Amino acid sequence: MMTSVDTELIRVLADPLRLRIVTLLARETLCTTHLVEETGARQTNLSNHLRVLREAGVVETEPCGRFTYYKLRPDVIAQLAGQFTELADSARTAAENKRACP
Length: 102
Prior knowledge:
Layout lengths: L6 H8 L1 H12 L2 E2 H8 L3 H13 L3 E6 L2 E6 L1 H20 L9
Antiparallel strand pairs: 1-3, 2-3
C-alpha cells in the first residue's frame, strides 16, 4: 500500500538555500561559519533556515565549544526517497488503468 508523500518535508526542502544546505551537509558536517562561507548567505538568514531544517528533523546539531555543527539525518532523506519510490511504483502499476468518462 502506498504511503502519502510528506508534503511538509517537501515544502521545507523546496527552498533553494535549504536544499543547498542539505546538499552541503550530505558531504560533511559543517558549522554555521562554514555554511556562511559556502552559501554566501547572511548568518541570520542562514540560522533561520537551519532552524527550519532542525525543526523538520532534517538536520541535527552537535555543540563543539562556541560553535554549533550541523549534520544531515540521512534516514529522513531516505524515508522521503522511499515515499517517492512507492509513488513511482504505483504509477507504473496504474499506467494501464484508465477511468472511463461519464
